Fold this protein.
Amino acid sequence: MEADMGHHHGDQPVPESRQMQRLALMVIVPLALLTLMGLALLWPFSGIPDSGYAPAEQQGARVISVNSKPCADGIEQEPNGCGTATIELDKDAEIGKSLEVELPSGPGEPVISAGDRVWVISGDALGEETHTIVDHQRANYLWILCLAFVLALLAFGRWRGITALVGLAATFLMLLFFVVPAILAGESPILVAVVGTSAIALTVLYLTHGFSLTTTIAVLGTLGALVLTGLLALLFVGAMHLSGITDDVAQSVYVTHGVNMQGLLIAAIMIGSLGVLDDVTVTQSATVAELAHANPESSFGELYGAASRIGRAHIGSVVNTIILAYAGSSLPLLVVIVADNSSFGSIASTQLIAQEIVRSGVATIGLIAAVPITTALATWAARRSR
């Protein structure tokens, strides 16, 4: 491992003393063991409990033709108008059996054209089987987009692109096989988020950037900022009496699975912050290592000041990224506010808006704190290595 510990965020090695390498291992190994213990204690070995809710089974189908006709009341129904569509279920493709179904109507319903691949659910009305078109099939386009994403990453990132893909896969596996199942199994969402984000940070950062002192400093800075983010989220969610239930999806999760929605909100804030935090901490740690290597005679104050100035420039753009990301996800709500000529002050205290403000505010404070935390740790380590 010591041979690997000489690599950092960039492609050129920065000398690291064996003493600091051993110290880094003494710090990171206990953290890794604690994370493994948390995974073992919270892992949903018994599986996800049955909620008693069985979603309607979907079947694939192809639209053969669309037969539009004037609506009986003279008012056209959005988005397809009135009439029927002739479809062929995938299971009936070999025998050529077709069905006639009503065109879907209402806000958010799919726009249907001949040749479309769609999803259909079946039901029973007065003893007769009925079929309803509910959505388009998108698997082929999703695979094309994923392939383009992978090729672009590998073409530009090369070996780093491969390690980034492995880290991305590890993140998804952790979310799908631990975080979500453990929450559904009744574990505290906050505890699950703490263990899950720690496992993701340890796995992804070392996979992507290699085993080095620089990466270890970035891990410690990330975990320190995550702790602060979690504490602030816990404080403000409780103080502002946010329930975490602001839409139909959240209400369905609470009613169907009995999840602690306040805890789920805090967990979501922590997990959402992790993706930006690791970028900032790795950059700051690598920056300090490069500055120290370029000017070995610099004092702690000089090194910390120079790296902090770079961090402030970086944090300005990243904070804007966070705010724009939350604004983008809440754009329909902003449209309603502007259209109704509502003042922001009159609605800021409503739960829906307050929840988004807490999300962005807490995540931003944690992100800002990550810079001095990581910079101080990296500067101390650089001075000790010298």
